[in-house]
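Comment thread on ticket #2218

A.B. wrote:
> Attaching the input chain for the structure job we discussed in standup.
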Amino acid sequence: MTVRHDVSLLTDHDIYLFKEGNHFRLYDKLGSHLMTVDGKEGAYFALWAPNAQKITVMGDFNQWNKVSHRLMPRWDGSGIWEGFIPGIKKGDIYKYHIVSTCNNYRVDKGDPFAFYWEAPPRTASRVWDLEYKWNDDEWMTERRRRNALDAPFSIYEVHLGSWRRAPGSGGGFLNYREMGRYLADYVKDMGFTHVELMPVTEHPFYGSWGYQTVGYFAPTARYGTPQDFMYMIDCLHRNGIGVIIDWVPSHFPSDEHGLSYFDGSCLYEHEDPRKGYHPEWHSYIFNYGRNEVRNFLISSALFWLDRYHIDGIRVDAVASMLYLDYARKDGEWIPNEYGGKENLEAISFLKRFNEAVYAAHPDVQTMAEESTAWPMVSRPTHVGGLGFGMKWNMGWMHDTLDYMSKDPVHRKYHHNRLTFSIWYAFSENFILPLSHDEVVYGKGALIGKMPGDEWRKNANLRLLFGYMYAHPGKKLLFMGGEFAQWKEWNHDESLQWHVLEYPAHRGIQNWVRDLNRLYRNEPALHELDFSEEGFQWVDLSDYEKSIISFIRRARDRDDFLVFVFNFTPVPRSGYRIAVPCGGFYREALNSDAAQYGGSNVGNCGGVRTEPLQKAGDFHMLSLNLPPLGVLVLKPVPSEPAGVNPEVQVAED
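C.D. wrote:
> Ran it. Output below, let me know if you need it in another format.
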């Protein structure tokens, strides 16, 4: 086999866009591409390596010969090397052997644009295509509505390698196709609207959970081929479930076959470690000021939307990108040109990323994991925002878990942990996350954070979930939490599905299923998630009893739900709250119902308002509040037949 250098996928316009930093479909041009030239089948290779002195392609096809199949640099100063090798076929594995102009550095690299890699721990790239017949036309046609900011977002966060393992003593991975069928059935039954996949991009170290990426254009080969992964997404879409991927443009690992020191120089990363090395994660930071790097990253994001029909991108560790001093001590970082700690290049990149995504796919969403008070993260770039569609509400998560972990006798001293989040709830388009980060590194499972004996732990967890679904903002729950897995998440093991043999765990699973049903079916719980018009306090001040109550409204102001939370194990009878209108209020949900593992304290299906004392007063409800429970009440036009209007008596 010889290398032909008169074949190219790159036009002059491609090179122009590449140099100015506006080529966001590089995956069509760089990497390896199967093609036929003059009747000969083979593959075209193109690689950006401006500081290389010599580049060859080696693999099984040439017995890993490091000299025989040379690429040639383009004449246009782009730093791109290319060539067509006949005889290459789909599935062939390869690497680039790079000899650098820098100190005669020699290294074997995987392809940054490879569509498919060998399964780790092997590190070569594979020549592959992305041919697939999609069957999700119905989903793609209507996903603008499904992904709208006023639509319900109940996200089930999943780590594919440990959600469920293959049966038998081996406990190996399920493949993407098996996962698609199992996951679609389960998520549909539970009522979640979307799944969020922890990073599926190829990563050498399984224990990094995908957050140390080398293959930004390839789903990990651990679970199958690119087409297998497409099938999984297709399966979820055909069951009405959106797919969000976790994407990591903040840093990359130091593995020799990856992006680091790619052509003998700091090509993708900053040369100065004060800007280019992440001390907390021992990884490299992208040089966001370099046009070619911006091309690479934004091309990666659009690739998953273009070719894999992904519905949303959650961007990891945005805070680490925004601040030059993130995880650094004084003297370990370089101020920006104005003397500040803001990373101006990263800010510019994030804005351009969001602009590119929404221009190409206005029916998807981007989501920022951003843990600081950076302003306008989820506001458009044309008004000064970063341009994300939504932002994780880390403040709500920390405050809520801190409050719920306290013994109820002490909760009245921390009442503001519950009420403070509403003061900023509408400053961003928030997602309320109970994510994987809260159930690892010795933090224990969600159920383990709850105080008290087993009954109280379960009741507290139901109360936590009820509070999350009632609170303004979209929802995210990490796998295993929905059935109160006792064990801290371990990426090397399957979830503890066997605990569903026990009534308490089934009860919590039933509760989450019914919360999802209520959330999806009630416009009051999602239409105005990001507007003050959708929320109204009834009473936020009863800290002595640790009780709060509020109203969630739909755009139709007459469509509303009333929530009452009792954060103590003391049942309250005759607890009075004011409501906007008179009549019968149906008990839409009660976390203390027996089917959820509760003690069945409630209001016998509903309660009528008390007669007005004088004109102009609010209507009043006298309620039985269950211990460590939440009531969801919905006004109905008339009292339904068969409902006992007598209030069930609870002992105080």
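A.B. wrote:
> Thanks. Noting for the ticket: Confidence is low (pLDDT under 50) at residues 641-652.
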